[in-house]
Amino acid sequence: MSPTPFLVLSALLFSIGTLGVLVRRNAIVVFMCVELMLNASNLAFVTFARQHGNLDGQIAAFFVMVVAAAEVVVGLAIIMTIFRTRRSASVDDASLLKY
Amino acid sequence: MIAFWILAPLMVVCALGMVVSRKAVHSALMLAVVMVSLAILYAAQDAPFLFAVQIIVYTGAVLMLFLFVLMLVGVDASDSLVETLRGQRLLAIAVGLLFAIVLVAGLAQVTVGAVVGLDEANIDGNVPGVARLLFSNYVFAFEVTSALLITAAVGAMVLAHRERLSAKPTQRDMALQRMRDYADRGVHPGPLPGPGTFARHNSVDTPALLPDGTPSELSISRVMRARGTVRDVEADRAAIARVDDETNVLRGGGDR
Fold first, then answer.
1. CATH 1.20.120.1200 fits B1-74+124-146, yes or no
2. pTM for this predicted structure
3. B19 → closest Cβ in A16, A65, A66
């Protein structure tokens, strides 16, 4: 099967993730949307690995997964810390960090 | 490739649902559907190792972590609809749509050559093939990953750690405090009454009955009273009285 449908699906998922990051205010949902974007790029990696007939794409997707796992741990810990001090998980409320 | 045409619309719908849904838990569940579908697409594209990793790491670990934090933060912590920047939401939707159109249109223009396929690369299995690459060409990146993971673990511990500002009260302190409260304000020093035991209900939502038959407010958790899930004792009593009456009638009938 041609890789184009996979790439289009990947692009659509990535755009939906971007939309979510722009629209949503709940920090946890924003974070989920970032995960969706990472997953979409992974799909493109795997598709290109099959297209080119070598496994480097799959290795790249694997490293993305590792980094995403580490990122989720730290990100959620930061969200928890902010929630503990401000009793809110909204990204708007954390704007006072700049002062 | 039937799997693709079944899964792709499902994934897009679920991803949109994730962005749209009001409750964060629904978003997480939609994301789970997307991730499992992605795992199946990996399997369909000759990547069985990534299929397993996707399910174990993403659906297993990452989503569990998300749900954990959602439970800690509070499930009902929904989005605020207050717009801090005027027109930001509409603009964001417009930009997102534009981005999607540009990306998809651009991809549709691209001509890709013939698919080589992974049959040759996977000749002694996908996992050995991935391992050979990972431990030769990418071994340095792999080693750096360990530093990243350790840093992440330490970071999470540092962020989640809460400094204790006062000494932890010991059992002795608490006992003294109880007696002081009793002396000052007459607060009962013993344990609170447990929830009541009825013939049919001994669950925690049934209040204990005081000697005069009124339900004891102290025997019910504050949270349950706030949520209004405390059992109505009067209704129970009426039901029990009715059952008693019927039993008496039956018993009287048996005697006759």
1. yes
2. 0.77
3. A16
